[in-house]
Amino acid sequence: MPDTPAGLEARSGDAVIMVGTTKGAFLFRSGAARDEWEMDGPHFPGEEVYAIALDQRAGRRRMWAAPGSAFYGTTLRSSDDLGATWSGKEARSVKFPEASDLSLARIWQIRPGRDSEPEHMFLGVEPTCLFESTDGGDTWAPVDGFLKHEHRPKWTPGAGGLCMHTILPDPSSEARMVVAFSTGGVYRTDDGGATWRPRNHGVRAEFLPDKHPEFGQCVHKVVHHPSRPERLFLQNHWGLYRSDNWGDSWQDIANGVPSDFGFAMAMHPHDADSVYIVPLEGDFFRCTPEAKLRVYRTRDGGASWEALSRGLPQENAYETVLRDALDTDGAETAGVYFGTRSGKVYASADEGASWTLVRDGLPPVVCVKAATLA
Amino acid sequence: MSVTVVLPSQLRELAGGRSAVLLEGGVGGMDTVGDALAALRAAHPAVYDRLVTERRELRPHVNVFVGREDIRWSGGLGTPLADGSEVVILPSVSGG
What we know:
The complex is a heterodimer of chains A (374) and B (96). Chain A has 374 residues and is mostly beta strands. Chain A is 1% helix and 39% strand. Chain A is globular, with a radius of gyration of 19 Å. With 96 residues, chain B is an alpha+beta fold. Chain B has one domain: Beta-grasp domain (Ubiquitin-like (UB roll)). Chains A and B meet through loops of A and helix 2 of B.
């Protein structure tokens, strides 16, 4: 077995990248310049880590990860010392009620709740469900209104599984939240989770005879900015969309991208008009178009997109960036980070204008989360 | 009636570091592997959770042997146990 990782020695203002792979998690730290990165890992060697997060609310510095063993299932772990020690496997149990006839396959998303509710946390899991904790993550239960949703028998898994990958609480209302999952699409609650309505009007389902069903879309990722939470950006299984009304309607914004297929999407931390994506050629060839590794950015809410490629390989780059493998940090000049299925992690310290390779040779990267330490 | 459950190394931390757990059958006994796992659940619920899903199915890459016999070929969780049986839990050959 690899040596036990020591955890990150980090200070306030440092940048942290948390990388989940199919065979463990790797942590990276840099000073505010984000030019040299130290690596710590693998954490949970041999276990897949599809979800990782850092909760800095209420003075915490709590890292969360959801390692999944191919043999013994998925657990939820936390660390208050940036990975030096992790809570035990038995400490936090995420389980479906036996009466549900469902069993947890994977945790896809760990989402600290609103700043106004620092003990609230959410999980998006497979088979699709929203789990909630109101005690800072110690105990968990599925949100009943979603667990028992009348559409559940008709939700079907995509290639990755029936996964809830997006959880967007309204920062100004404890009653409203958007979730997204594949396949099923976007659902919204306006009553604190008691009821959930599909919000997919205008989003294409290319793989169904009815291209515009009420639900059943294969939405890959949705992001929004807390300063303008009603405006959602959506990367679809074919299609790039924006909604200005919490998903009530969607408009196509695939203006000037080489493909509107892709998985990853990330919001700029300060600019509500700026979004990053990594287009892929298509569903039958899920690699970067023209074998060029390019991040695309809009700075005008999707009216136009520009390629960001300086420092990235522009030939023989048959790369795939998955839905949670692209993120931004909270620095004043935003850092942007992504990881590839070929085990590379790239970073930009200048909002995507230029890129450097942080690490090569990792197991396939399935999630990347970045943060500036408070 | 007593049955010993031998744990794989990855799960020993969930059983206080033990490599094997001795289970004593109460009323109703431990006639089957399923009974033994129920007794294991009472003694070490975190170990049970790693072996069995919420649907009470053995996780697909967990193998359980009674002696040298894989229970998949001898009746699954209904495989009979005798006094002194040894139930061995091992991860399967899988992965990439």
